[in-house]
Here is the input.
Amino acid sequence: MTATPPVRAPLPPKRLLLLLNDAPFFVTHRLSIALAARAVGFEVHVGVPFEPRAVELIKGAGIVVHDIPLRRGARAVAGELRLLQAYWRLIGELKPDIVHAVTMKPVLYGGLVARLRKVPAVVHAVTGLGYLFLIGGPLAWVQRTLVLALYRAALGHPNARAIFQNPDDLDLFLRHRVVDRGITVMIRGCGVDTREFPYTPEPPGPPLVLFPARIIGDKGVREFVAAAGALKAQGAEARFRLLGRTDPDNPTNVTEAEVRAWEEEGIVEWRGFSTEMPIELALSHIVVMPSYREGLPRVLIEAASVGRAIVTTDVPGCREVVRDGDNGLLVPVRDAAALAAAIKRLLEDKKLRADMGARGRARVMAEFSVEGFVADSLAVYGDVLQDDQPAPAAA
Here is the structure.
């Protein structure tokens, strides 16, 4: 008689905690991962600063939300200590199996706490290096040195992976010996749903040149306005639109008064923040973002998915999306004259815009789909969890 094997109780679901610096950013850039993880059996939590509309969407998707006192641009010691304390308490109480930290402060502070709290597995997403890595001077050098030391401590968890979006950021971390190459993973951007951002022919009427980003200096908004002014002075029959919010927490924020002054001069129109990006991009003819440095900007992938020619800067992150002369034009950073010349070239050549837009759409379909991004991210989760217990399997 064969003995009946004992019935084993099912393993509890793995508990995933995502840490980010902004709730709307989580909705647009990481909710796809949270939903996919939940679908394969993870218990999913997210720690973000409270924002009513975004939090409502996150909770409606079945994700548990924890309010975190994080201000992206703040540097006061008391505020940083409160953030550390909040992460210490949350991770201690929740006891996650895996922490996925995205953006600088969650990686630095959340990653450090996860290491000290002995969380079994940690995934860090380095999505860009921010303002400190764009400015010069001895004080900035000291601050960068401190930040890199904090990165080194946070990324030193014995069972971690560090996701990079572009090779320039990865090379910088390797050059400064911040991270071991063996734990690094390259995932370019966070993908887009090409059904949500369908290919759309240009609308009729005068061309609309769109700047779809936060209204801050580091995104190149002043160069965009200078280029728009120069082109209008030359008689260009085009509209120039800013689509984004100001960001008082950012050191390079442009005040609302300054933006309103540009409007009054007739240089640009300002539409503010939009939750209808597929519509806004479809209304445009050219998308322009002359940023100083990026991780890998999702909005450029969205623009390419809709089929728009792009003008952007030849800097880390932006050049990962746009190939010069193929699906857009690359210009030197902080060069308003070169930016104006590139925009003018596209304004005067509708066929070139259409050809670039078609090639951009094809590239997104091949390289930047949200399905690929989610699959790559879940594979990283499985990789760091394999030494503990197997990651949940799809039903």
Q: What stands out?
A: The chain has two domains: 15-191+370-385, 208-367. Confidence is low (pLDDT under 50) at residues 1-11, 389-395.
